[in-house]
Amino acid sequence: MINKFLGFKPDEKLLPSQTVTEDTEIDLSSHKYQKIWLGPNHPGVTGNMAIELTVQGTTVMRAKTHVGYLHRGFEKLIERRLFVQGFPTSIRMCVAEPDTNEYFIARSTEELSGYADAVPEYANWLRMLSLEMARLAGLLRGVPGQGGTFALGIGVQWGVYLRDLILDRFEELSGARVYHMYIIPGGVRGALPDGFKERMEDNLRDIDDFIIRIKKLMFHNSVFKQRAKGLAVITPEMVDKYGIVGTNARCCGVKRDVRKDNPYLYYDKLDFDPPTATDGDVYSRTWIRWQELIQTVDLIRQIMAKMPKKGDIRCKMPNVLNWKIPKGETYVRLESGRGEMGMYYVTDGSDKPRRINLRGPSYNHAISVLEHMLIGQDVADVHAIMVSLQTCPPEIER
Amino acid sequence: MSFNLKDILTPFTAWSRVVKEPVTIKDPFTREAAPRYRGFHDNDVQLCIGCGSCEAICENQAIDLVPIEGVEGIETKSGDSGLRPSIDYGRCCWCALCVDICTTDSLRLTNAYTWVDTDPDNFIFTPGVTPKDWYEKEEGWRKPGHGYEFYSHERVHMEELHADERKDSFIEFVKGYSAEQAKKEADRCVACGICTATCPAHMGIPEYIKAVRDDDMEHGMKILYETNPLPEICGRICTHKCEDVCSVGFKNGSDPLSIRWLKRYIADQIPADVDKYKDMLGTGEIAKNDKKVAIIGSGPAGLSAAHYLALLGYNCTIFEKLPQAGGMMRYGIPSYRLPYDQIDKDVDYILSLGVDIKYNVNVGTDITLEQLSKDFDAVYAGTGLHLGRSTRIPGSEHENVYQSVDLLRNIVTGAPVPVEKKVVVIGGGNVAMDITRSMARLQMEKFGEVNVIATSLEDEEHMPADREEVVEAREEGCTIIPGYGPQEVVITDGKVTGLRVWKCLSIFDETGAFNPKFDEADERIFEGDMVIESIGQGMDLSYLSEEIKSKIEFGPRGRILVNEDWQAKGLPWLFIGGDIIEGPDVIHGIANGHRGAQSIDKFLNEGR
How far apart are CA A225 and CA A205, in angstroms? Predict the structure, then answer.
């Protein structure tokens, strides 16, 4: 419309055909194409990851995800440490939601050494509390962050402030704001501080208010709607083909949630129903996460109401310096904010794990799914699509 | 796409936030962190013993233990490695595992979290030593409590015969650990090695405890024999100075590891088979040399010296005054603590290495020391303390006043031991407890009831006997009344009828000399038909001729002075060890027997 108004007539031959697919031929020597590196140092990229884009005009013809910018070999580092030393390294595999990885290390070692049932009830409730708090902290950044990719920055400011309040609660519970190092083999590392529930309830009330404000800001916003609706649709057929999990699967009606399908900790004692949508586009993914925000706040309230007042925080286990675990292997999984995650853990009877492998959702989401979905999209939407898939590069290069 | 007017206007509600107060903190540098915050380290260096558990658990190898000797205002204590943790903040991740494992609870993290410095080297510092302003902060990460512990503070209970079963019998009453119990106990070890440094023989304690965990008894035995050729004996009656300094038992309410029982566990697993021992320890064939060493006394020092000299190829001959080997271990320690077959097990192996032993030979009368010095290239004397000491109070020369060492020896040799209905023992050491409990057993055999009173100058807290000895003696029906000093053996019509004692107020005077003070008003009479003195033993050096005595030097209380090679000063061929130099206890004897053997080897190889 604007081109018509300005009387601008683009050279149709230089523009891509209307339907760009993975099979569309690209002849780089034709000088019609341009390569753009998005990242690794780019404020719009979620972490240190790069996307090599081949564009024609502003249309993405090809996308290739490049990783390797933060590879520190976390899995190998853990394999060279005692069982109890694993969790401070594991949290580096996802900075935004580190508690999930702490849980994997703890739960795997407990299962393999026969202490899985010995973990005190109080400790298990605290584990669940910290996992949900981590999910909440992630969502407080993730939901308004989606608006941020469309230059709607104000919501991000609100969300980050509230996330900081949750980090304050983490600080008093675990002793640290970001790298909590709270869940340890055998239990957790601290009881609930006095007055924690009251302070948490204050924060949750602020978040309740935020949930309404962010709804007005983003979901009753014509610009956001226009940009996000119909963008990068995930169809139910893609879910199994690409191994899509979590909110990315639920956005197209595939209701999968490990907390419901395969309950761990005491999730079967909580009353909740994972939200789903049908459209599968960026808008519905954001919309589901907004609903999860409400649900997570509710879950934290339920946990705080149902958990015991006091108890032991760690079961009696062998001396951590001499701890050996018999030969065995296990796979532990849970529902993180980004979807199902799992850890494969092998022991060989020594005092260190034989093999560790983290299966994070970002591996599929940021490589196969993202590369597929970016084709034919506008360059301006690349960030939005990437953020909507909730990619977390450290999970890819463990 | 349709435009909805509501969707255009609603986002403008965000402007309502313009009138709200800002939420940012104006001055973030003064923000106080949470009470549990894992900030910068502080260490109570006076409390810290430098066990190094923090270094062992640090997953980033950020902690190094550095010597603090010479640092002003810091004194190291007994059971202290003299090292303190230094932390490299370039590596630290503030996980606080070091705090959680700290055996003394001296290490903590404060909730300070800002530190600006221009010199990167400053970020390697020794908490508690390097001056830092955050040490005054009270809040920060400490051990969480609530059942959170990294190793068990509770010792695995050792099964014993009940007092009723054991009080009339001399059979061994400590049953020993089962494999499961031993592994569980061995699991508590943090391998700090302070025990090794404290043990007079410097035994490789963490290594043999690891062998227990790994269920590798042969390896365990090898480590034991590196420094101690009497594991069965030491595993039962060692004075376990290692356990006194064990870092796991440092805190109140924490038990130290049962190092002694674990040693016994290893030795007990190997059957009493000399060939098996030789096979296991690789001592089947030893190349012999032509040098000869005479050893006087087959106590721990003599046996230890003989063992290590035999391994070096020397031809050793032990001269033993009594009919069997073992010295005080056999003739001073009752068999309910140390059964004779266990002594034989250790001794037989040492003798099987080619060590010759001559029983019932009294050096000094049957053969002179001068003769030995001519027949042999070197002489090692570990003659021990076999003479009882008297209190010299009025009445102590009465025939019914005995010496504990004499009675204990008679119990073993089968010589008649007088047993009366009421017995009073003077002394609060381990030997006093041995005679108290032995007499109780003999009374049970003879009269069917126990009536022994033991009294010591020291009060309950300062009694030199091991705590468990006192407790067990009481369980067996003995009466222990500490804190009284003997004044007179009461003799009525020529018979001993009791012991008159006064309450002891203090034992040493201001100068530290032995000068007990009594409260005469608090007088008691302990009834008894016989009195046994057990206030320490003296040495019998009658085998030294006047000529030899004139050549060597003597120190205070008649002790022979030795140089750092355990040679008697003045007589290079005479080496001295055992209780007459150090102790008295088994492990010191074993230790200086070992070192004596090394010195003899050095002496005989000089000039080669």
Answer: 27
